[in-house]
Write a sequence for this structure.
């Protein structure tokens, strides 16, 4: 049988994902010495890890070329898609927040507001929930620049430690919601390889949420 193929988000979530595999007893030596390789065997070839950008993890899982994926809830909220979200893995914890220049009253007054974000859909949903008409500009990274340069009044972005905001004279105006890494599964794989997927997801679940008695 082909190995189950799992797409892992490169970067921030990568080392925690590898640690999780190790915790459930999977040999990750290839992942730990990957060089520039993008497809690597895990657990002696029982699994195959694919290293991809967050949004691409969703694309590969949706199209069924990967059976599973590990990706942030932030990317899931922004892109949506047709797959099962089966497990909150508990790592990669951060939050979505509206942030802006310190001491500025974002909600006061009647003038039209502009918000920059790497997550325009999340930002649009957030403001439509408030029945606020806000212009949203998509920025690819270092979104904190937009209010500093005068392009936007505020940003909707991920806040982890708060350091980037602090060091750039910005502050959280309002928290939107918490996010963390999720295990996602292709809809067809969920049917065709149910037992293997449930076994893997079950081991992951026990590793991230050990039962009371097992806690060290
Ligand atoms: C994220 C986010 C913030 C920063 C928050 O950016 O967009 O800029 O991290 O982290 P902190 O609260 O711990 O400072 P990332 O580092 O992923 O880079 P990017 O902005 O270039 O996408």
């Amino acid at each position: 049988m082909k190995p189950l193929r799992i797409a892992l988000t490169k970067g921030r979530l990568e080392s925690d994902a590898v640690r999780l595999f190790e915790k459930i007893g999977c040999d990750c030596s290839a992942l730990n010495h990957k060089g520039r390789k993008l497809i690597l065997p895990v657990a002696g070839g029982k699994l195959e890890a694919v290293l991809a950008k967050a949004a691409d993890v969703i694309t590969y899982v949706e199209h069924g070329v990967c059976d599973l994926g590990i990706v942030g809830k932030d990317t899931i909220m922004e892109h949506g898609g047709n797959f099962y979200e089966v497990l909150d893995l508990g790592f990669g914890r951060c939050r979505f927040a509206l942030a802006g220049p310190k001491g500025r009253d974002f909600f006061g007054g009647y003038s039209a507001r502009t918000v920059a974000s790497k997550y325009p859909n999340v930002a649009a949903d957030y403001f439509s929930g408030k029945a606020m008409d806000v212009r949203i500009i998509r920025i690819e990274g270092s979104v904190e620049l937009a209010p500093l340069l005068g392009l936007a009044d505020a940003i909707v972005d991920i806040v982890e430690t708060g350091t980037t905001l602090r060091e750039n004279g910005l502050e959280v105006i309002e928290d939107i919601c918490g996010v963390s890494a999720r295990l996602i599964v292709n809809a067809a794989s969920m049917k065709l390889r149910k037992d293997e997927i449930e076994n893997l997801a079950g081991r992951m679940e026990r590793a991230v949420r050990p039962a009371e008695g097992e806690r060290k």
Summary: The two ends are 36 Å apart (CA to CA). The longest strand covers residues 170-179.
